Amino acid sequence: MREIVHLQAGQCGNQIGAKFWEIISEEHGIDPTGIYHGESDLQLERVSVYYNEAS
């Protein structure tokens, strides 16, 4: 199992963290609402490393 611990501290940390998630989402074809709109199975191959579906 792979896990990523992501911490943000201060204004700079928040800005960098927000950009990180924006880029990761774009790379995996996930829009800001969390819906997948990609065209490649490769985008979904390791998506569980970054995202978990919650209810």
Largest sheet: none
Total strands: the figure is 0
Q: How much is the radius of gyration in Å?
A: 12 Å
Specify the overall morphology: globular
- Mean pLDDT, nearest integer? 83
Tell me the helix content. Answer: 40-55%
In N-to-C order, the SSE pattern is: HHH
Q: Say what oligomer this is.
A: single chain
Gap between N and C termini, in Å?
A: 21 Å
Query: Helix- and strand-based class?
Result: mainly alpha
Beta fraction: under 5%
- What is the count of helical runs? 3
Explain how this protein is built.
- The protein has helices at residues 10-27, 41-44, 47-50.
- It contains three helices and no strands.
- GO terms for molecular function: GTP binding.
- Belongs to the tubulin family.
Task: Describe this protein with a few key phrases.
55 residues; mainly alpha; 3 helices; globular; Tubulin; GTP binding; Tubulin/FtsZ GTPase domain-containing protein; Beta-tubulin_BS
Layout of SSEs?
Elements: H1 10-27, H2 41-44, H3 47-50
Q: Care to give the gist of this entry?
A:
The chain has 55 residues and is mainly α.
